[in-house]
Design goal:
alpha+beta, 6-stranded antiparallel sheet, Arc Repressor Mutant, subunit A, two-stranded antiparallel sheet, 3 domains, SH3 type barrels
């Protein structure tokens, strides 16, 4: 049982590093600890263990990154997670904002054979219900061209592509305001002094803080003005 719990913990660390990196080079250990809800000391100890297993690289005082082996293992966990999210929404009818935590539990108890049978059953979906790409069986992650909402300028428009990284609090907040992938969005204005972003979805105007806007990704329309 201890070995299983440790293996699950390893997978959570690797998946979390992958999610927080999102194209960046290094993930600070403090950010990793906060996301996982553990102390910085505990996170540092685990990082040292994973470095010895050639799953993480660690640059002291700067952060961590996945090795090739670590990235491959993280992508397998992410693939299981996002396939389960699709199943829970598409076939069990659970709300899209609730399935993240359920999938977090299922991802650690699913063998590769079950994962691939699930993919066939679902028709090989390309994204999870939150819009995030599902890695291929070999661990390759599809190319991403979207940008965070807080990187847009007033007057820009596009379509919400995904919510990333996911959390229950964030998804509940967005679902309560009917903000989700596939919706067209227009960036109206930004309040002074790094204030909230005013965005338009349908006929509704929403004020979103910078932190929340950083988790909402948008495929920007090509006809936006320069």
């Amino acid at each position: 049982m201890k070995q299983e719990a440790f293996s699950e913990s390893i997978e959570m660390y690797l998946k979390t590093v992958s999610e927080l990196a999102d194209g960046e080079e290094l993930v600070p250990i403090a950010a990793l600890a906060e996301r996982l809800g553990v102390s910085t000391v505990s996170a540092t100890e685990m990082v040292h263990r994973l470095k010895k297993q050639d799953l993480l690289d660690h640059i002291p005082y700067k952060g961590v990154s996945l090795t090739v082996q670590g990235d491959r293992r993280a992508c397998r966990v992410i693939r299981r997670h996002r396939l389960w999210e699709r199943f829970l929404v598409d076939y069990l009818g659970l709300p899209w904002e609730k399935v993240h935590d359920y999938a977090c539990r299922l991802e650690h108890a699913t063998d590769t054979a079950v994962t691939e049978a699930l993919a066939v059953f679902l028709g090989h979906p390309q994204t999870c219900p939150h819009g995030n790409p599902i890695p291929a069986p070999d661990g390759e992650m599809p190319a991403i061209t979207d940008v965070p909402l807080n990187h847009l300028k007033p007057g820009d428009s596009g379509v919400i592509s995904r919510i990333h990284p996911e959390s229950i609090l964030l998804l509940d907040y967005l679902a309560g305001r009917n903000i989700q992938p596939t919706q067209p969005v227009e960036f109206e204005e930004i309040a002074p002094f790094n204030g909230p972003l005013m965005i338009k979805i349908g006929d509704d105007i929403h004020a979103l803080g910078q932190e929340i806007a950083a988790h909402i990704f948008v495929e920007v329309s090509h006809d936006n003005h320069e």
